[in-house]
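Predict the holo structure. Ligand: zinc ion.
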Amino acid sequence: MPLTRKAYRAAILHSIADPAEVGIEASYEYFEDGLLVVENGQISAIGHASELLATLPADIEITHYQDALITPGLIDTHIHLPQTGMVGAYGEQLLDWLNTYTFPCESQFADKAHADEVADIFIKELLRNGTTTALVFGSVHPQSVNSFFEAAQQLDLRMIAGKVMMDRNAPDYLTDTAESSYVESKALIERWHGKGRLHYAVTPRFAPTSTPEQLTLAGQLLGEYPDLYMQTHISENLKEVEWVKELFPERKGYLDVYDHYQLLGERSVFAHGVHLCDDECARLAETGSAIAFCPTSNFFLGSGLFNLPMAEKHKLNVGLGTDVGGGTSFSLLQTLNEAYKVMQLQGARLSPFKSLYLATLGGARALRLEDKIGTLHTGTDADFLVLDYNATPLLSYRLKQANNIAETLFVLMTLGDDRTVLQTYAAGTLVHQR
Ligand code: GUN
Ligand code: ZN
């Protein structure tokens, strides 16, 4: 790679700690007239333009943005690639929604041309929305993951994905077997895990669609390779929770099923967790596991309200997830808009800085990647966004009434969406321009 150094001048904001741990003021850094210096795909300096400019060569290329905010790239800790074509499917809650809409839609990924086409649409949509890292469910077909990683690799994106493992309680056309899921996952791990900025996640869909044999092999895979991720769903919907109790009567509860098969750990991310109890939160925290909070999905599928204060009490790692296509938007800004309402309905608050944390550093911590992404600290990957204060006439007018960065940030998260993302950079390269 040729040696390159470029600088970007604008207001700059990043989360540097969890407001729940250090208080709001100590949780972020804000430079009203900031400079971000990028060298060979990484951030080499960040600070006030007035101080940093003097340290740089006179001929350095500087891009200067007016009415814009630079933030870290956003991190989506739960999304389904093969559900891109079914966002906004009417009328059902989780289990009927899966049977009526999801499984037929995912079956199309048996076809490589379809998998390639949707991978391209999906990645463009992530980048248009400012998402630079995502933890992604493929379909049961290995091809869905190959197509995704091939497209992500071309743009040098930091992405995590896995092929769904499901060997029961789903249509025959969409099931694997315990053995084939193990073999196919292993082949994908060998091909992709640790290649450039790509990582693999062992992906049992959820307890009801895996036999004990399949869950055993999922746990075995995790033991066979270092730093593998594990992603699945948990306690999203009350009928689902009851069903798991019927299928696994010998286990104490839903989380205990995954615990028994050794699927908890520092790189395990459980989507939803709306109906988790206190003990389960404690066990998740104890094992370093994380939750993906998916508010648009939880509203859309009528699943319930995630108890973020309970997770905070247990110091549980929480990231934000769109859960497309149960979720209704690829935009993590719009997802935060809904997250705020989830807290309001429970008599709690979500400060704009906690929101920023959830969508950036919180997600990075959930994925154990905080030394690489989620902040704009020196030495981390140059994955960042330029948000446009004048993206829409209303946003432009509304932000003129904002008195400080807290108000500006909150309005960006309430009115903002893909239109707000002017540019997205990954490893220092422009990968989306509005
Ligand atoms: N539980 C099992 N599969 C799924 C899925 O595809 N989406 C959601 N939201 N929940 C699930
Ligand atoms: Zn999901």
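The domain at 5-72+376-433 is CATH 2.30.40.10 (Urease, subunit C; domain 1). The pocket of zinc ion (ligand 2) is lined by residues 78, 80, 233, 271, 323, 326 (CB under 6 Å).
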